[in-house]
Write a structure and sequence with these properties.
Mean pLDDT: 96
Order of helices and strands: EHEHEHHEHHHEHEHHEEE
Low-confidence stretches: none
Number of helices: 10
Distance between the termini: 38 Å
Shape: globular
Helix content: 25-40%
Number of strands: 9
Radius of gyration: 19 Å
Strand order of the largest sheet: 1-4-3-2-5-6
Largest sheet: 6 strands, parallel
């Protein structure tokens, strides 16, 4: 496994690879790797001849300086995990100065409303920051395929829109959410939860599963039930639960049967830790 800290050296190496003989897969991460990340890499190594994983905590996507400062970091451990447990070929682990000019801010993108709901409301400009760094990665690496987890469903759809806006021939693949045995979605932020809070976090997935099991009920009834459950638990603060079309992320009036794809998205605080999750119907 090769490790690059400098984009020019990475590009020089990649330019020597025969593109007509290889499929380049890309998995962007912010480190603190867990089984969800490893699943993305596994999917890439199945489809691609070369898999590149980036480890970079992107400053422009954080709305809160304290959140950026406290984001879990353990790059040495991450690289060791990649080297020993995956078939990842290349790790790109840049300094901020390798990607951003001094005082450079997030660029603005027109996502046609995909960024205006859910996370876009509670984390303004977040997706512009995500898109800014992904555009940089895409131009440096020029992958054939990039892999993203469906846990961040809104991000997934925005990235699909991004490659269309940039007219880049990159296939964006969504990989199903990886969960632990209790159903909690794998997330780097889970590292901040103590054992009691982990038990409380089960309510997010339980709420989504309840909606799935009772999807013949009206959305109004389902939402009221979930809100009521959260109001009875002082340990958790519900931010939103939204019922949306899987592709457009627009609110739906009722859950439609297959082949229509719907999603139920949820965000909540357990103590100071903010978690998101969704279930796809």
């Amino acid at each position: 496994m090769l490790i690059f800290r400098n984009k020019k050296k990475l590009q020089t190496y990649l330019n020597e690879i025969p593109r007509n003989e290889n499929i380049i897969g890309f998995v962007p991460t912010m480190g603190s790797l867990h089984e969800g990340h490893l699943q993305l890499i596994k999917e890439s190594t199945k489809e691609c001849t070369i898999t590149i994983c980036s480890i970079f905590i992107n400053p422009t996507q954080f709305n809160n300086e304290e959140d950026l400062k406290n984001y879990p970091r353990n790059t040495e451990k991450d690289i060791n995990i990649l080297n020993k447990t995956t078939d990842c070929n290349i790790v790109y682990y840049p300094e901020i100065s390798d990607l951003y000019k001094k005082n450079e801010k997030a660029h603005y993108y027109n996502f046609n409303g995909l960024d205006k709901s859910m996370e876009g409301i509670y984390r303004p400009n977040h997706f512009n920051g995500v898109a800014t760094v992904l555009e940089k990665f895409f131009r440096i690496i020029n992958p054939n395929i990039a892999f993203f987890g469906e846990k961040d469903l809104q991000q997934l759809q925005i990235v699909k829109k991004l490659v269309t806006l940039l007219n880049m021939p990159i296939k964006i693949v969504g990989v199903p959410t990886k969960r632990d045995k209790n159903g909690i979605a794998m997330s780097s932020r889970n590292n901040f939860l103590n054992n009691h809070q982990i038990q409380e976090a089960l309510q997010l997935y339980a709420s989504l599963q309840y909606c799935k099991d009772n999807k013949t009920n009206t959305i109004k009834t389902l939402r009221s039930h979930i809100i009521s459950k959260f109001e009875k638990n002082a340990m958790i603060k519900l931010e939103y639960i939204e019922f949306v079309d899987f592709e457009t992320l627009r609110p739906i009036k009722k859950i439609k049967p297959s082949p229509c794809k719907n999603a139920i998205c949820i965000a909540a605080y357990i103590g100071d830790v903010r978690l998101i999750d969704n279930i796809i119907l």
